[in-house]
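Hi Y.,

Following your request, here is the sequence exactly as I used it, all 675 residues.
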Amino acid sequence: MTTPLHAEWKTPFGLPPIDLLSDDHFASAVDAALEEARANIAAIAENPDAPDFANTIEALERADETLGRVLGAFYSLAGADSNPKREELQREFAPKLSAYGSEVTENKALFARLEAVWATRDALDLSAEQSRVLMLTRRNFFRAGAQLAGEPAVQLRDVKSRLSVLGTDFVQNLLADERDWFMILGKDDLDGLPDFVIATAKAAGEEKGIDGPVVTLSRSLIVPFLQFSERRDLRQRAYEAWGARGANGGKTDNRAIAVETLKLREDRAKLLGYDTFADFKLETEMAGKPAAVRDLLMKVWRPAKSAAEADARILEKMLHADCFDGPLEPWDWRYYSEKRRKDLHDLDEAELKPYLQLDRMIDAAFACANRLFGLNFEPIEGPVYHPDLRMWDVTRDGKHMAVFIGDYFARGSKRSGAWCAAMRSQQRLAGNIRPHVVNVCNFAKPEAGKPALLSYDDARTLFHEFGHALHQMLSDVTYESISGTSVARDFVELPSQLYEHWLEVPEVLAEFATHAETGEPMPQDLLDRMLGAATYDMGFQTVEYVASALVELGFHDGPAPNDPMQMQAQILEDIGMPHAIRMRHATPHFAHVFAGDGYSSGYYSYMWSEVMDADAFAAFEEAGGPFDAGTAKRLEETVLSSGGSMDAAELYTAFRGRLPGVEALLKGRGLDKAA
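Below is the corresponding structure, written out as tokens. Let me know if you'd prefer a different format.
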């Protein structure tokens, strides 16, 4: 079947022709692209000319260009706007793509050419970037098992194929659980809920086909419900449903998938000669070894736990004052913490929310990018996969830099969370290719005609994902394999978490935090109170995160557990997890870890990067302020434009002159004085 995907994409900026596509087009397009890629690989392997960098390494870089284009379009749709057909295609593509990857790395003639280039590298007059690409390519081949032969090679191929299927199944099960659960709220179930929560719940009901408000498992709805609902029974019901995602029994239960995934990862590591999967995975990261990760996490865990336990004692007293006996429970924490925040800081979410409009926060993120890096954002029209999407042409000094796409609202067809993806990455090998970057969020969609209002956490998420987008937009390398966010996993969160700091800059909030109805800027007193509460409840937030990171590290740093849920419970008991706090991501819905290898043995990366981002923002402050031009230029030149062209530690040292310690992180979280 000939489809619009096969033809030249005559669209603005070469965007995927999504408006011309049906789901039936993708299977034939992927098959054709795989056939083309296989032919390209065969041509490289069978090339009679002596191996050199151009005819082997650069040829490999371009071998599956068409496949990348097609998959960039497909997975953007499948992740953010799923349907049964797209889910079926994901299941179909996973083993096919795994098989293709194995064919490439198992091609002995191709591997021999790669080794020949490596052996003569000193005589090839390679640039620093080319040397880096050569090293990474060779390392990737070895880590994929290119050196294996016979039965071990077959075993590894089977392991990788099965893991690709399991990752797809895990995500689809999670999406099904999130999509199918909702709780209808009657008139008597609205006690304590501010107008903005009720409005959001009504909009969610409309999306579900319900005439009235509902609570869903979207974070942007369930969190404010837990913060404000006076109905403890409903809070418990909603919280337990949220925590049970992926563990409800039946065909969407992810616990068996977790068992098999962990065992297969252990098998993979052993076949490649590593003691544990964590040793294998961390070899390419800044941390290097599991011990370094555990050391960082425990340095943060101890003061965070101490702060959280002190807070819990206060919140439990508030619970008892409301005539509830027994201990503080997880569905109580956000409710009483919100009350306490109002008492301590004279601040509540309902007061803040009208000043945090989605449109104004987008404007704020763009304005900061303009002041720091000279970027301009012009709204454009183009083919999109959902009418909620927005699109901008990103320019600098009149030159096109990127297409930026924002997909901000929660819907049943979208998996939870927030992420940044590149439909197309920057490179120069195939011409001056500029990126197509997508930010996907799950903010609560407002009622028709009403402005979308964000929580402060939502606004921080928007800035976070836009930091990832900047990493893609400002990329300036020759080779796609090291472009943009193609860096060590524990380095990739640096640009995103660093960008969050500009949301806290008073002059940014003074300009863009304007009231949804009056247009008036946030009063100085309210702004001061909001920023003064920035580290409020940080013990809770840090505990739920670090607990998740320690559990998933434990899964991979040793023999695979036969019962991950039991191991999860044991690790939490060993570290003294506070009763009223649960892991941010329990095992059956821990998509970071089980949807693929990306964050496996890697959830710690957010904390590792935070050590750097706290220190990196201090560089701006030391230089005179958050918009210091010299520091911004150095950040772009060393970190944001460089992709994976250098070792991550070298990139950070080039920016800051040294590597940071954990002290800046603890101070930034307000935990430096905790016992």
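Residues 290-321 form the longest helix (32 residues).

Thanks again,
Q.
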